[in-house]
Structure formats: C-alpha cells, structure tokens
Design a protein that fits this description.
The chain is an all-alpha fold. The protein has eight helices and no strands.
C-alpha cells in the first residue's frame, strides 16, 4: 500500500527529531537535555515531539537504539575480518570514533539512563565483546598470548577506553 503524503511527512518529522536529539545529546548531554531543547533545535513544536515520543525516556531509548545499532554495526563491519587483537582494538576505536561525542556521553551518563536505554548500551558493548572474545581465544590457542581470562582482558580494555573518553 502506498503511503500518503501525511504519513511520509510524519516519518520525516520523526527522523528529524531523532537526528536532532542525537546531535543535541552529543553536545549537551543526554540527561541534561530537555524535550524543549530538542524541539527548538529541530524547528518543531514541543507538542510535536510528544506526538512521536510519549515520554522523554522513550525519546532517549529510541535515539540509543537507532545510533547504538549504528555504532554496533560499524564495529562489526570493521572488526569482522580482523585476525589479531591489535586489529580488533583498532577497529573498535575506529567504530566508536565515528560517533565519539555521543559515545562519550553514553560513557559518562550510562548509570543515569533509563533502564531500557541501559539495555541498549549493553548491546553496543556486546558488539566489540563478540569480536574481542573470538580473536583472544584464537591467540591464546595459538600460543601468541598468555592464557588470561578473556573477560578480564575485555573489561580492562573497556575500562581504559571509557576512562580516556570520560576524562
């Protein structure tokens, strides 16, 4: 069934709000951004945002789902063919680097996010964890790396990256 011009306009407005919220969250912070800030930056009314997202939590979660998926996909694309740990770590940095201001806000504010948004944040971390674990297991089996528990290595890596971004 063909979409009406009104339906298309509604979809475009929703996309505009999501993109604008992403940009404003990246600049000002996720939890310190008000719906009115997003509305003003998008050039729509305050009520228009609520037509598309019933609550601020729903907007935050949708932005995280949309852009978190993009971060995870980009990380998968870059890390998929990596053969050694150095390549995986470089791919991870490149993947998050494309979204660095937003990713940094996620690092800083992750504990303050609504529950559904924190679940999305966890799935973003799982994207690199998958590739990290695969390469670590191969390197340990081949004898190129010491047999250190992968979860410890992964948590150390993420801690270093997040500490750097937060500071």
């Amino acid at each position: 069934m063909k979409k009406t011009s009104r339906q298309l306009q509604k979809e475009q407005t929703r996309e505009l709000i999501l993109k604008t919220a992403f940009e404003v969250f990246s600049q000002r912070g996720i939890m310190s951004t008000r719906i009115s800030d997003v509305a003003q930056a998008a050039g729509v009314s305050h009520g228009t945002v609520f037509v598309h997202f019933q609550t601020q939590e729903a907007l935050i979660t949708e932005v995280l789902e949309t852009y978190g998926r993009k971060i995870a996909l980009r990380t998968h694309e870059l890390a998929d063919s990596c053969r050694c740990m150095e390549e995986v770590l470089s791919a991870h940095l490149a993947g998050i680097g494309e979204f660095e201001p937003f990713y940094t806000r996620l690092v800083i504010e992750s504990r303050l996010l609504p529950t559904a948004a924190r679940d999305v944040w966890t799935s973003v971390q799982a994207a690199i964890s998958f590739h990290f674990s695969q390469v670590a297991a191969r390197e340990i089996q081949s004898g190129r790396s010491k047999d250190i528990p992968t979860h410890l290595l992964f948590n150390m890596w993420m801690g270093l990256v997040h500490y750097y971004l937060a500071n």
